[in-house]
Batch of 2 targets.
Target 1
Amino acid sequence: MQRRTFIKTSALGSMAFNCGPWITEEKTHILTLSFDDGFKKSFYKVAKIYEEYDQSACFNVIASGHLPGFKQVDDYILPDLMGNFDDWNTLKARGHEVMPHSWKHLNLASQPVEKAKELIVQCLDYFSDHLEGYDNEASVFNFPYNSSTPELEEFVLSKVLALRSRELPREEQTNVFRQGCRSMGPENIDHWVEEQVNSFLRTSGGWLILNVHGLDGEGWGPMSSDYLDRLIKRLSIIKTLDMLPTGKALLKHTNE
Ligand SMILES: [Zn+2]
C-alpha cells in the first residue's frame, strides 16, 4: 500500500489531493520530510544539506526540550541532544520551518483530556513567546507519536492552521487542514525512505509526508547524512517535484 497523505482542498471540493490535476502542470508531486523532536546536531546537519540544494527543511520541536526539567523520552529523546530556541530561531531565519511538536512529548491521547489541552496550549504559548515570527494561524501542530483523539484534534484545529497525526482511512479524510503521516524505526531508515520516495514518484501525483527524526544514529529511525545528501541532491532537480515544509505546502497549494 502506498504510504501517502491525503488532503482535501476547498478549491477541489471533495477531491483528494492525489486524485487528479491538483497543483500546477509543472509541479505534480510534493514531498515533505517532516523531521521531529529537536535534535540539535542532526537539525543543523539537515539544514546544511537542504541549503546546499536551495531547499527548506521542515522541523518540529518539543517546546520544553531545552529546559532543565525536561525528561528523557523512551530510549531516543535525550535531554543532552536537544537544541534550544536560539537554535530554532537561527534555523528559521535561514529559511527553514519550525513547528510545534508538543510541550514535553507525552502521548496526548492517553492523558486526561483537560490535561492534554493544557499541554497543547502551553506548547503553543511558548512558541508564540520564543519563536520569532511564529503565528498560530500559519502553524502545524505535530502530535507526538502521531497519536490523537477526535476531541483533541478539534481543539487543536480551533487554534492552528493544521495538525499532523495518524493517517486516516480515506473516507474519513474530511478536513482540508488535516494531515496524516507514516514513519519507520527504530533502526536506520535509508532504505525505507528510498522505497517510499521512489514508489511515490512513480504515481501520477500527490503529496507524500514522511515523518523522520535525526541523522547518523540520533533519534528513533535515523537516516544517514550521506544518504540524505544524495537524496536531496537527486530530488532537487526533478522539475515536477516541489519539496516543501508542511506549513508552506498548505499555504501555497490551498491558496491556488
Ligand atoms: Zn516525537
Target 2
Amino acid sequence: MHQSLSDQNHLEVAIQRELDRLCKLWGISNIREGIEIEFSSRLTRSLGRTLPAKKTIRLNRQLLGNLIEYLEEVLCHEIGHIAAFHKYGDSVSPHGEEWRSLVRLAGFEPTTKLDVSLEKTEQRSKRRFSHSCPRCLTKRIAKVRMTRWLCSVCVEEGLDGHLLIEEVL
Ligand SMILES: [Zn+2]
Ligand SMILES: [Zn+2]
C-alpha cells in the first residue's frame, strides 16, 4: 500500500517537473499555473485529449499503469497543443508545423500515431480471415482462423478439401 502511494506521489512530481521543463523550453511559463492535467478512465479511444483554450489536458489513466512507457511522450504531445495555441493563435492547425517543431524541440519525434494506438487495439476484434479453396475458389470469411473448416464442394468429390487461410486486410 505505502509503496504504491509513494509511487503515485513520485509520478505526480515527475509530471509537474516535466510540465515545468516544457513550459520553460517553449516560453509559455506565464500560463504554466493555468494548465490542468487530469487522468481519466473514461478515455477509451485515445491516450490524451486537450482543450488548448481552457488549458485542460485529460490523459488516459492507463498511462499510469500498463501504458506508462508512453506517458512522457503523450504529455509532450498534449502540452504541445496548448503551447502552439497560445504562441501562434487559435487558427494553428492541431498537428501542423508549429506543433511539430515544438515537439521536436522537446526531444520527441512528432507523431499522431499515439492518438490512434488504442483504436488499433479495438480494431483487432474486427479482423477477418478468408478461407479459400485453391481448387474450386470457394471462399468463406470468419472472424478467427477456422483451421478445421474444409471445402465442402471438394470433400464431396472425394478430395481433402484443404483451405488456405489468409487475413483480409
Ligand atoms: Zn494531438
Ligand atoms: Zn474446393
